[in-house]
Design a protein that fits this description.
Strand content of chain B: under 5%
Distance between the termini of chain A: 12 Å
Helix content of chain B: over 70%
Strand order of the largest sheet of chain A: 2-1-3-4
Distance between the termini of chain B: 54 Å
Strand content of chain A: 25-35%
Radius of gyration of chain B: 22 Å
Order of helices and strands of chain B: HHHHHHHHHHHHHHHHH
Oligomer: heterodimer
Number of strands of chain B: 0
Largest sheet of chain B: none
Shape of chain B: flat
Number of helices of chain A: 3
Shape of chain A: globular
Amino acid sequence: MKIVKVYGSGCKRCKATEAMVRDTATQLGVEIDLQEVTDLQSIAMAGIMSTPGVTVDGQLVHAGGLPDAAKVAEWLRA
Amino acid sequence: MSTQTHEPHSHHIPSDWLWYGGTLIAAVLWWWLYNQLIPFANWVTSLFPVAPDSHLGEAIAFFVYDVPKVLLLLSGIVFVTGVLRSWFSPEKTRAILAGRREIAGYPLAALLGVFTPFCSCSSVPLFIGFVSAGIPLGVTFSFLIAGPMVGPVGLGLLYGLVGWQIATIYLVFGFSIATVAGFVLGRMGLEKYLQDWVRDLNAAPVHALPDQQMTLADRLRTGAEQVQEIVGKVWIWVLVGIGLGAAIHGYVPEAIMLRVMGGDTWWSVPAAVIAGVPMYTNAAGVIPIVEALLGKGAALGTTLAFMMSVIALSLPEMIILKQVLTLRLIAIFLGVVATGILATGYLFNLLL
């Protein structure tokens, strides 16, 4: 099971990104462990500078702005 | 970009052309609308049963001319800026600044502050990302001051509503304040006033994302999304600002304006700076007010100080930064930037 973390301090886009990941996972039938990281210290510690940031199994795949829907599917499928 | 990256994305091609064509049509439409502003405003104003030279008539005329004008300008500027900024990212900016000698770092940071896309909600991670990469605190401050202070929205609207001369003065002095304030703050050795956890932080190295290959259509789409998001968020501030501007334009007598915001009143500049701090609006909301103030004979220095204070010294921004800076450091930061703004205000009141 993939561990997907969405880093963001509660901004609108961060929430939207999280919803996008969850919906895409459901659509694809992929089981994921989705975690929301809102603590600024943890965001900084993870080396993320622009939120929302997304990591899949510890690998940074996205930083800043709403991700592309096709990209989200790609992360989850791979 | 090699020639062999033929990925199965070719189905994007027709939609790419939609973007090119759509942008072209939007630009032509924008230009046409922009040229209809005066007849349109005259027509709307004539619908009101008010004498055009009455207080109310003047206020209405200001409002109905400025609302479509500011919204059009705002959309255009945000779109172009959004497209330009798609070439920049905080990660790239950080890499550029981290490898720089300190002195060249300040103006460069101020310049990058204008072009790097970041929202105030991620200014804390950004701050930490910069500091943990060894970018000096002062250089980081130059970046953070320049971003809002000389943002393209403020400059563009100033250009469109007040004229290029004042827009240029604002650009030069806003940029100088960001550079010099960063330099001064950097000389003060303020690292000890960071919050403890920031100083002790061993942040992971910022991962560089693989450079995303955006097509031109992707960049245009980014610009359009920005327009939707920003105009959708700030239109209410624009209306409030223009409403205030209209009230000033229609009702405030010039004699009072000269007494309160005139160049001969020594306290007008500090008062303008203080008045600006709690006002939380963005450039799009404040420039119609600036337009009305200048039109009524307010001194340029006082007005510039007011505008810079509203845009660059904002209370909510300080509250966000409180998570990484101690109160003492915030106070020093505010003091240094405010001094720069005061100096600019007095300088122009003396010169003109």
